[in-house]
Amino acid sequence: MNFFVLHPWNASYCATGALTAREEKMSKGKITLIGGGPGDPELITVAGYKALVAADVVLADRLGPVALLDELRPEVKTIDVGKAPGCHAKTQDEINDLLVKYASQGLDVVRLKGGDPFVLGRGGEELIFAAEHGIAARVIPGITSSISVPAAAGIPVTHRGVASGFTVISGHEDLSDVPLRADHTLVVLMGVSNLPQIVETLLTRGLPFSTPIGIVERGYSQTQRTTIGTLEEIVVRARKAAVANPAVIVIGDVVRLAPEALTQLVELQPLESVDVTASVSFAD
Fold first, then answer.
1. What are phi and psi of 136, to 5 degrees?
2. CA distance 110 to 130
3. What average pLDDT does the structure give for the chain?
4. Active-site residue, from 83, 90, 97, 101
5. Above 70 in pLDDT, residue 19?
6. C-alpha span between 138 and 118 (Å, rounded)
7. Stretch 194-223: mean pLDDT
8. How far from the centroid of its chain's Cα atoms is residue 36's Cα?
9. Which of 30, 56, 61, 113 is catalytic?
10. Of 26, 96, 179, 231, which one has the fewest beta carbons inside 10 Å?
């Protein structure tokens, strides 16, 4: 496994099999950013698991495979740095400081994340911060929830003859410029609280009211649930179902391939007056 020295001034990477003398002098410890996948402990990579059990300090997200922390040595220090809507155990700046603090003490520090560190996971920020402080760092990719959670619900983000590509975006971002085509799937992460605004934007940009949309909650858990509808009435249906985070929203014709679509889409009746812009509260 290579370590990387990131040069902030040009964001280029230099892979090295071993630390140079200058790097050894600047840093005794190291940082490993691990993508833990969608939360199921069995979906972390072999490389990620090996790095995790070898760690001295672990900074863990709430949506990562936290059950694996029970398998660590008793002397391993674990720190909860998880973020929930409206409640952050640690700010990103505090997380960055902790990573460098413990690595500077000569410790093997792991940042255990849900999904993949570089897919809306702020892994790039942490890598740059480590480099700015002369800390050797490496990244072990993980299975991103943007693909795996829809898959758990039987929704492929691409499918021959249905969708040839997909876009992943945060629900907190502006959707006015994302590709909107019948053969292009849109996957929205962290978008439950902004669902009315998301629907309004997509309809304003011309997506048909009949466009299918699926919301997959708590992917790969025993309480996984999929709510399916159309853009016309998904806000009302999600409110009635008390849809809550963590959830992945999938928009496009591929949603029709989900097992639930066989009943949920067929049962839908046209709604004559649904105000998709109305304020709707969802559980976070």
1. -70, 135
2. 12
3. 87
4. 83
5. no
6. 12
7. 96
8. 10
9. 61
10. 179
What would the DSSP string read from start to end of 225-272? Answer: EEEEEETTTHHHHHHHTT-BSSEEEEESGGGGGSTTHHHHHHH----S
pLDDT for res 25: 44
Cβ contacts of 275 within 8 Å, gap of 6 or more:
none
Lowest mean pLDDT among 6-10, 133-137, 215-219, 277-281: 6-10
Q: Is 190 a catalytic residue?
A: yes
As given in the structure block, the two tokens for residue 158 are 């691409």
Name residues whose C-beta falls within 8 Å of residue 18's C-beta, 6 or more positions apart in sequence.
none
> Can 83 be counted among the known catalytic residues?
yes
Specify the DSSP class assigned to residue 188: E
Q: Residues 118-149: pLDDT tens digits?
A: 999 999 999 999 999 999 999 999 999 999 99
First to last CA, the chain: 38
The pLDDT tens digits for 248-271 are: 999 999 999 999 898 888 655 444
115: β partners: 37
CB neighbour class for 64 (10 Å; exposed up to 12, middle 13-18, buried from 19): buried
Residue among 30, 56, 113, 190 flagged as catalytic: 190
State the DSSP code for 178: S
Over range 182-210, report the average pLDDT.
95
Nearest to 202 by CA among 217, 190, 215, 212: 212
**What does pTM read for this prediction?**
0.83
Query: Percentages helix, strand, coil for the chain, rounded to the nearest 5?
Result: 30, 25, 45
Tell the residue number behind the tokens 């249905």, with chain if given. 162
Beta strands 12-16 and 3-7, pairing class = antiparallel
d(C-alpha 135, C-alpha 129), whole Å: 9
